[in-house]
Amino acid sequence: MSADWRIEVDARRCIGSGGCAGMAPAHFRMESGVATPIAAAVEPTETVIDAAESCPVEAIAVRDDDGSLIAPA
Ligand code: SF4
User: Fold this and answer.
1) Is the pTM of this model over 0.85?
2) Hey, CA dihedral for 37, 42, 48, 53, is it positive or negative?
């Protein structure tokens, strides 16, 4: 069994591009112009790494259950 990953969005940094919600609609939604994780903990999936890597302002952090940063690299 693999441990969950944690997703955080820094709302102060997010510029509301909507890229993450478009790329990973199962994991991010837009709320008042700011991205919000749909669930704070997710099963490990490449999709959330891709979203974190693609965020133009690096507002998304994906961490393992120890708190170590997985993405963005
Ligand atoms: S990709 Fe980054 S800047 Fe764009 S909505 Fe998501 S968190 Fe915000």
Assistant:
1) yes
2) positive
Number of domain units in the chain: 1
Distance CA 16, CA 58 (A): 12
Quick check: CB of 36 below 6 Å from ligand 1?
Answer: no
Q: Is the pLDDT of residue 1 over 60?
A: no
Ligand 1 centroid to residue 5 C-alpha, Å: 18
Distance CA 17, CA 30 (A): 9
Pick from 1, 2, 25, 11: which is nearest to 61 by CA? 11
Of residues 3 and 67, more confidence is placed in 67
- Is any atom of ligand 1 closer than 6 Å to the C-beta of 24? no
Domain of 14 in residue numbering reads as 5-71
Query: CB-based contacts of 1: which residues, under 8 Å, 6+ apart?
Result: none
